[in-house]
Fold:
Amino acid sequence: MGTIFVDLSGELKTLFLSILGALPFFLGYVALILLFMFIWRFIRHQLTPAHDYTSLKTVTFGDESAVKSDTAASIISVVLIFVFWGAFTGSGWLPSPFHAPGPFTGEGRFTYTVEASDGSRADATVFVTVFEKGQAVPEADIDPGSGPAKNDSLAVQVYRSKLLSWDANDEFKRKDGARIVAVDGRPIDRRTDVETSIGRVALTDKGTLNFEPGKGWQMEDIWLPSPDSVWKRLMSVGRDGYQNVTLAEHLSYSLFRVVVGFLLGALVGIPLGYAMGLSNWFRGWFDPIVEFMRPVPPLALIPLVIIWAGIGEQGKIILLFLAALWIMAIAGRSGASGVQISKVHAAYSLGASKIQILRHVIVPNSLPEIFTGARVAMGVCWGTVVAAELVAAEKGVGKMIVTASKFQDTDIVIMGIILIGIIGFGIDILMRMSEKFLVPWKGRS
Amino acid sequence: MSSLVLDNISMRFDLPNGDHVQALQDVSLDIKSGELMSVLGPSGCGKTTLLNIIAGFLAATEGKVMLNDHIVTGPAQERGMVFQKGALFEWMSVRQNVAFGPRMNGVRKSQSDPKVDHLLDVVGLQDFKEKAIYELSGGMQQRVALARCLANEPDVILMDEPLGALDALTREKMQGLVLKLWKETGKTIILITHSVEEALLLGERLLVMAPRPGRIHKEYRLPFAEMGVGADLREVKHHAQYNETREEILNMIWNMEEEIMGRTEGAA
Structure:
């Protein structure tokens, strides 16, 4: 117990420190938001002074009706994300003046100073070529120069590092006690590295030099690929597929699971909810089951479903069925029990039978609740299917990104995440549109 | 001759804590066909309970309700209801709401349509037939509720504070409409209200109920409903007897409320 507390407080401290480290960036971002706000307000003020009703309100802070989503802010916010993304990945979509400083490539040099065991010193120059990934450059032929220390040449790929056995051609040898004491005139030892204009030079335990070309501020492709390379990947994967499975196949498998699982869940859940909303006995019977199962995250069921049904379609559909079932049952229950008694009384007084009241009063009256539930259920199902595919699947968009992450195809991972987001958003928009069409009276009675 | 008879209605139910409530005690009434009766009383006097028993939504523990010589056991279309609000079906148009009763009873659309159209004309909604319910104002919604009730041709119309949620001006217009419909259709109407003025204007018979236990305190027979048909209701309000009766009933209810307050404070 005590160790748990100590461990967790240690974690908390680490977390707190990293939050503290991120704070300047966060504050900078907030400052940027405010800056754009003032700029945009100024521009709008100059362009077309608004004369609508809201513009005449003097109290807007706290007036919910005066707060609308500002389209300009949305556009700037999204554009800014792409600008940041492009700037820190050296994207071709962004003019190079906007790029963050990139890694060093090309030719450069640094000098090192050797001190022999007798105390005599000599300098030599290392001619460095830093080449782009995939264009291996041979070590250049250089003039070794005179003196006991001879010049060296070094070819390194960008973002990599390379050891230099400087004494291979020197008269001062490490085995005779010679050691490097300075780089570019600045002292160096095992604990002190030297930052040159082209990269970092370090001294290893064995006394050789380790050169690491300057990385600049940009992200390496393996961490964060540029937006244009993600787009290119989308095009190529869309055309040729990834690992013998087309993108359309991945996406349609995921969507198929969601739609079938959700429909089954709704087909069982809604009548179950109605039964719970309309009968004491059914409410009593299913309340403990539904109330217990609802807080269990569907993701927690994945291991059990895999044990029972394997990783094929059946298991996925059972999982999504369970994810949708409880949500739809609760939506059906609150829809059925939410009907105003005066509506039911009125219908009885107009001569309706029980079946007619169910068909013409209770079901239509519950539609707004059903739709709210369906939107939540679709969202949960979409999240669950991706997670289930991450764990085990043969096809599906979740499977695609987890495979890509194993091969460090970060661009596919990011492409997959964006697609998952767009599809989830699209599902929600579709649900909202059908809700507006089918339940126009919602919230207006 | 159809008539509504309440024969010694009592209603008593248990509370979870073991107490019991005597909501109504020995209520007897004989309402003739075509009578317009308003029911008034302080809150808790059981007037809504009484209406629900007549409608058949509640069972009386003693006594019986008879309509046209048969005993009422549940809701039926012979007794139409008009509620204060929220009883219209938002998923249907105005016309569909009014046609709901005939449709439930298997009347063909071609047969019920002329009647529905006529009723919508009568309540003044001829230009709103295809509108959605949520597009109508509160007053218009109550017009739909009246038309929907009439479409089923009930013998008795039960109104539970039908104008209670309307603003004063709309309310006055609707009172005129209720009188007009009463006179034109000749239906028996029982109307529950909180407003003394409304009870006076819309009650051929006016029943004042008293609480704890709910019972009939006093009954009036008034000429104002008859006077108000087709006339300016504000004229009726200048009548001397109107003001006199109003003061009397207000005092009566005031005293009842005082008594309730006193008793509650005494108990506490």
Notes: Chain B has a mean pLDDT of 86.
